[in-house]
Amino acid sequence: MYNFDFVKPATIAEAVEALSGEEAQALSGGQTLLPTMKQRLNAPATLVSLTGIAEMKGVTRDGDTLVIGAATPHAVVARDAAAHYPALAALAGQIGDPAVRNRGTIGGSIANNDPSACYPSAVLASGAVVVTNTREIAADDFFQGLFETALHDGEIITAVRFPIPQKAAYAKFLQPASRFALTGAFVAQYAAGVRVAITGASESGVFRWTEAEAALSGNFTPEAIAGLSVAADGMIGDLHGTPDYRAHLVGVMTRRAVTAAR
Amino acid sequence: MPMDGGIGASTKRREDLRFLTGNGRYTDDINLRGQLYAHFLRSQVAHGRITAIDTADAAAMPGVVRIFTGADFEGVGGLPCGWQVTDKHGQPMQEPAHPVLAQGKVRHVGDPIAVVVAETAEQARDAAEAIVVDIDELPAVVDMKAALAADAPKVHDDLTSNLCYDWGFVEENKGAVDAAFSAAAHVTTLELVNQRLVANPMEPRVAVGDYDPWNDMSTLYTTSQNPHVIRLLMGAFVLGIPEHKLRVVAPDVGGGFGSKIFHYAEEAFCTFAARQLKKPVKWTSSRSEAFMSDAHGRDHVTRIELALDADNNFTAIRTETYANMGAYLSTFAPSVPTWLHGTLMAGNYKTPVIYVNVKAVFTNTVPVDAYRGAGRPEATFQLERLIDKAARELGVSPVDLRRQNFIQPDQFPYATPVAVEYDTGNYDATMDKMLELADYAGFDARAAESAKAGKLRGFGIAHYIEACGIAPSNLVGQLGARAGLYESATVRVNATGSISVFTGSHSHGQGHETTFAQVVSEMIGIDAGQVEIVHGDTSNTPMGMGTYGSRSLAVGGSALVRATNKIIAKAKKIAAHLLEAAEADIELKDGKFSVAGTDKSVDWAGVTLAAYVPHNYPLESLEPGLEETAFYDPSNFTYPAGAYGCEVELDPETGKVTILNFTAADDFGNVVNPMIVEGQVHGGLAQGIGQAMLEACAYDADGQLLTGSYMDYAMPRADDVPAYTVDHSCVTPCTHNPLGVKGCGEAGAIGSPPAVVNAVIDALHRGGHTHVTHIDMPVSPSRVWAAMQAK
User: Fold this and answer.
1) pTM beyond 0.90
2) Which end of chain B is more exposed for a tag (fewer CB within 10 A), N or C?
3) Nearest CA-CA distance, residue A62 and chain B, Å
């Protein structure tokens, strides 16, 4: 790791100011950033920790919406969201190991947009709104491919607003080594219809499986999508699974999520 | 019986107090005054010619003391290979040079090119980034068969090809084997891969070199399983330092699994640099470095055939294996696919003739050497998968086919057609025990329950034997070993009766400090708490060969028994003098010497005090003091054997396999500490299941390491393995060592991979996927699913 300066602002305004500096980088848990810095693949001049900002932490209910502060660690979401949005809490409780869950945050995860991360599927399937210091971004606009998001330089995610679904579940198939999602499916049923988001599978990152959404909106049962499949084209192929295998898992995991939804 | 448990007691491990409280003293805990730090600049390409190394900018950076390159090692020896294999034509293997730092060429990703020594580790690393290395990249050879093509790029320009050796065993039997195949009623053939693994001990390698110019004394602190071997190899072959001027210390070591047997470049470098700079030099491996610099394991590609007669008796076995050596010959690499593998191809079976061919191949990959089991897991996997396949083809029970061909208890000692003589065993007994403990009789009902839930349940059996307790020196010498494989012990009885034992064995997790004390305490009849076990320092232990090949108790323990017997014999002489009795009438029981048939006695401490305060002592016939050393060279290997049963459930939708139960019934001969033996089996099973289900070290076609971290190299975690059922109640004591013990350290890793894969194939067949006859390890969900689709 190269030397760097470390600041831990107490307010969003201070964080924005700190991030305007030369080669400043936001830190919100560091579960991806710190390993790359240790490998000297990343060398920010200043790390701006976002986890000391009180207004960016915690889980609050706002009518039919669950608002999660961007700097809330997974372990807190797993605990505090359980009564409001059990599928989201369950997802948070399955990320990594206890150390990861107590350090990693939802904002850090979705800003990084790892194609195998769990949270992007929940955000996208819930049609959540990503709130930043300057604007609100719909989930459909936020995720823009591998490690790419709609965030501008220096823009800070402050919260994610999740509409609470009637039913939802996340089904994750583990990559055996990293235990990231080899393929994960998040299914959420709303009055307006069903949304299905798939993570871990596509070379373009998290995506909505619109065919399944249409079928499930009419009939929310695993049988409704039994005949559907996604093409292997564009799926990730690596040591742990071929594109064919991942395409197959998209169907299996989606059906399992539908079965598990409550 | 000693109060705190002699032989047979599950005494808690005394070393765990310091390990579990974070108070172990590992090599990285050693920091010497004025210590400098080494950072290795390693090749990022698999194969290339070094055209220039510019260290000028780096040398000017803060804290840099000196930068070393291959040029600094001209005239210094290379890393030696400790075993010379003779090929099937009677010619010695091709043995390339193995420089400490690259000389002209790099041959694998991770090959060290230069080393920065600086005042801090960060400074050394910073400066290493400023070294400019020009490399003309060459095409890499990764695939073994491609490496043997006539036009393949050569890993070593001065060798005739990438073939290290083409070994035939037993060459004289080849004709008989071919004839048996011609006459066979049935032949079963299996092609398989025993994949490359990374050992991954919890503690990465560390070396600290120190030099005292006023005494011309070098010291190396290192993460080794065998400090005396390192002293001999490094002193005599690399740096030219005689033993009396070189001390090697391997303090607490956090696991080795074979990977810390070998003499590595970093050890030689730190010792060399400390002499050059007259300051201590330390290197600590990162986990990333470990993936590309620790010797890897396995990496065999095999075709094996079994011939059977019309009554399903095995009549011959024929195998052809390609064994990857990597870019250089690691210390014992040539022995693994040959003598540690070919000699096990008889398994537990009375197959009359066997022929094993092994082609060892150089590639642009990390060197491959012994990893837990070393050759024996590869042999067992082939054999036990093959027998399962044969049973399926013949429509007979895999249990019955094995039983029918087992060597029977009345056939021991049994000389196999592959040059070893099994001393004892009872394979039906372990098979019976395993089937009973695993409730094999109830399996069909459990399978039916799984089927109701849409799952496929399977049961896999493997019966292994291994040759361990390595090894008779005269035998291995004939086979090409450049070392003896005896073991040593010094028993120093102190004046008040406490005992310090100095063993040439080395504990890096095995619990010697506990078990060796149990042996001495049992023999003398004093509490184990009075016995201290000292190991790991060449300056105070007799020359011994260290710990690997499940040899510590069988060989090191035997040396300890011999030394203790010498102590007891001398103590009886002293007691006879003190008691004014004939030596022949002296009995030792519960730490007390008494005269047979009388109430006259003297206790242990009375005798030991007399030895060191010899006021009343037979000085004219006996030397004072009570300290004895023994060396023990085994007359044979020991042959632990056992039956392993694996029960799995397979999710046909995803291909994911879950191990529900794993049952191991081992015959380890006599057992000194059952708890520690069970722990050894648990660890072996975790590594064997890791190989079967999860682990694989992969390179791409250009020789780039694809599995350079735990993000892609899948290590077994606690929830990947079941709660094991292990048993060691089947006992046929070893006939040729004094404790009647066999090795137990590698068994789990040897017997479990075929049991797991057999279980997966069984589950698939029960589910109607009868086209699947084999899946290469690891049997990952994606591979199982792909096999199911490939009709």
Assistant:
1) yes
2) C
3) 38
